[in-house]
Design a protein that fits this description.
- There is one protein chain.
- About 95% of the residues lie in helices and about 0% in strands.
- With about 40 residues, the protein is mainly alpha-helical.
Length: about 40
């Protein structure tokens, strides 16, 4: 039972972590672009 839960739960957790990482990267890129625009 526990093994089945882990097998079902682990990919979902990985997907959520990856999507959060992508969102943070996109946000960081926007922040960097805004800072670069302010300097020039």
């Amino acid at each position: 039972m526990v093994d089945l839960l882990v097998v079902l739960f682990f990919p979902a957790v990985l997907t959520v972590l990856l999507s959060i990482a992508e969102l943070r990267i996109k946000y960081a890129e926007k922040e960097l672009l805004n800072k670069i625009k302010e300097h020039f």
